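Annex B. Sample input.
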Amino acid sequence: MAEPDETGTLRLAADLPPVCGVTVVACVRDEEAYLAGAVRSVLAQEHDGDLRLVLAVGPSHDATASIAARLAAEDDRITVVDNPTGSRSIGLNLAIEHAAGAPGSVDHAVVVRVDGHTELPPDYVRRCVELLRTTGAVGVGGVMAPLGRGAVQEAAARAMSHPAGIGPVSFHTGGRAGPAETVYLGAFRRTAVQAVGGYDPTLFRAEDWDLCLRLRRAGGLLWFDPSLVVEYRPRRTLRAVAKQFWRTGMWRREVVRRDPSTAGLRYLAPPALVLGLAMSAVLTLCGAALGSSLVLCAGLAVPSAYVLGVLVAAGHAASRRPALRWRAALTLPVLLVVMHTCWGAGFVRGLTPKAATDHRA
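Annex B, continued. Sample output.
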């Protein structure tokens, strides 16, 4: 068991058993295009112990529920649980509740999170369990490797793996193996997750970051290994990307509101950009109305510098190997602007009453 002691420090009373059961959990909705591939990658894992997959299926506008039911009927290692709220936090907690294994099976001491639009390499689960053992960490994770088809998805994939997209975060851009603040998806000791209360059901975004924060504050070690690579499929349209980053910005503002110590430069830069662009627009209008070239130039300074920076960053990102196709390369600067401004505008706007109770937010 893993539990906080009197000082709140997370301690491990026992290491992982020699034969370690693993439950892979996923909260899925509207994943018709990718769910079957994600499930196949889980069932193909090179793991000697018992392995189960629990899918928490939320309300969908496509055939996700029927696909999940069919896959479960074809393989008894898959369990489907209903997640009527659609909330990732609630769905993941429901899935983890089923992580004890089948009657008579070994204890499922490890919980591995995946998403419906990810695919695991065959040795992922085995290597995660090895890392949990060798490092003593409560959670381990690796690199998110975005892959796309079509101009927008290809551009989104490149942006998300470049510092200009989401910032220089190790699981996006790579780095050295070692302790980490958070892990992408994550493979966790189940008792450690339970000891800190699981995922926060009041958070519909940033729930993974929040869980990792509570694990660290309880004294647990999180470990990043760049050789762990998970394929990820980004959104396929500019509208979907805009909606994703708008909602993420709103929920990040909520996380900072709850705990101001979590505010960092990476999170404050997009809202600062949006506010700077808004002030520049006011100055530009004032300069034009007053006929003042000085005020007009001052108003154009920030947007001009930003556009130049985006073009330079997009050119650098597009030239990385493998080089982007020309349609994706032309889309990339537009996509970077959408990501930055929508995230920043969502943060400035903050969480709306409707978004606070809407699982789609």
